[in-house]
Amino acid sequence: MTLDTTRADHLGAYGDARARTPNLDRLAAEGVLFERAITAAPLTLPAHASLLTGRYPFSHGVRNNGNFTLDPGVPTLAAALHDAGYRTAAFVSAFVLDRRYGLARGFDRYDDRLELERRGGETAAAMDRWIGETAQDPRPFFVWLHLYDPHDPYDPPAPFAAPFADRPYDGEIAYDDFVLGEALARLRARGAGGRATIVAVAGDHGESLGDHGEATHGLFVYEPAIRVPMLLHGPRFTPGRRVPSLVRTIDLAPTLVDAVGVSPLPRADGRSLLPLVAGAAKGPEEAYSETYFPQLYMNWAPLRSIQDARWKFIDAPAPELYDLANDAREASNLAPREPARTAALRRAFDGVTGGVEGPVTPAAVDRETARKLAALGYVGAAVDSPRPAAGRPDPKAMVGVFNRLREANGAIARRQFDAARSAARDVLAADPGNAFATLILARAEMEQGAYRDAIAGYRRYASLVPASADPHHAIAVCLSRLGDVDGALAEAAAALALDPRYAEARELRGGLLASRGRLDEAAVELRAAVDIAPDNALFHVGLARVLVDLKRLADARGEVARALALQPENPDALAASASLLAAEGQLDAARLAFARALGRRPDADDVRLDYAGVLAKLGRTSEARDEYQRLATGSETPAAIRRAARERLRR
Ligand SMILES: [Zn+2]
Prior knowledge:
By secondary structure, the protein is an alpha/beta fold. Helix content is 49%, strand content 10%. It has 27 helices and 13 strands. Strands 1, 2, 3, 4, 5, 6, 7, 8 and 9 form a 9-stranded mixed β-sheet that branches. A hairpin with a 3-residue loop joins β11 and β12. α23 runs antiparallel to α24. 51% of the residues are buried. Bound molecules: zinc ion.
């Protein structure tokens, strides 16, 4: 079981008197608790890749969320247990662990059915169903449950909200503790989950909660973000044992295969903790952690650290050395004063890493992924033109800028565009090449109708991230709103040259071609948009409109039917259906459909104009006159529609 974003020192078993974590505390009391467990990375995907492979990130290759996939050649815990005859399943709670990132290998079932994230209770219910469905299977099972609730934003469900109103992060942890307790109870009710079952719990990373200026996690490798809870419960784990020495989350998978008698994972960096738990051997000498998030999303320096029983070294543009035994808060950087000890730690660091950085080869982030990551609060953008290593700012000097960037991202999500613009401008003043801030500023300008400024911003973004089709699509939208159809067509084509499956760009180009009367070409683009995104009702509507104009009424009818099947009350779909009925000569049915569409969206003046036309054809002259009158005098009505209404009134 993995607990996302859970700091060790916010559980009762780790000494937090205000915590409400009775189930985890009981598990700890009846099993083994590791007082000082260090994760390999303060980022969900790399941390889980380490948990599931027993390897450090420089060895398994997953250095960040979103733009890395676990290599199919790296042995995993799930694959090893599956090969050894286990039935295996995983139930994850956030998109960051979607199967596309490579962790699904070895699992018979990998349940990642969610848009962005889901509550732990839902995920645990899915796990319970699987255990029930496969209960007749005589093979032993390995199941991984991932709970994501303590991840920012903190909004614990009732009844965990009110008691934790002043510290909702702890309310989320309390909720996950409850979910875990229920899940274990259901497991026991199914005859599993007793003493013969091994239950392992680990955090993937912690949460800074303002420590060193960091609100959440990912930017730094200080202790609040990398020290995690780790508990083992089961036949090989002495009840009530607390292990004070340093251990690592990469030791978990080697420990589990050892505990069930499966052969070790080849080339793992971690090792079995069974001898340590039994008191027969010492634990690991040191623990390594890294974050490449600053480099890969922000174009800043990565941070890599090593710690031993007492000291911690952080490899940064300005290196850091802390005496954890006497300075647990890492407040006093001793590196400038203790060069010899710093050099010794750096040698130990090179001993662990082999003196190499390991592969840092991000894949391109597609649009959908970038949108989902931003919605989950991961700010950044994959950088295509990285700065040379020597020129990368030190993240600790940039934390204020980073926090401003998070504010900008949050303001965009809340549609507070003035706030977003001012926050993005602050970021760009301090870090002029910041791609994500450039994107946010342009987006806010576009939303506020400042199209020329937005176009200039998107052009800057396109030069920073030349592989991205997004800025070209956005420029096309801005140009079309400025009435520059030729320019918009060219930019939409530029977006499609970079990403031929960009459905929104196809749809935009189709609409622009139609506005130019190039209906056959428009139909081709709109058909392509529908083929790429068949569940988008509005794409079917756009295609239907052009098909009506082309007098391909049977084809149009199919598209309207699909749009209405997807969204029966969508005003655009209703209006398209009305136009189609009018084109087919079914004027009375068209009249009713137009009225329904206008009931849903009374300010759709173009629809009203067509409605009035149908009324006139039906001989309902006075009703038609009323509608034309309304359009001719409407203060918000577009000039072209006002003019058309006046003309028809004269006739
Ligand atoms: Zn996480």
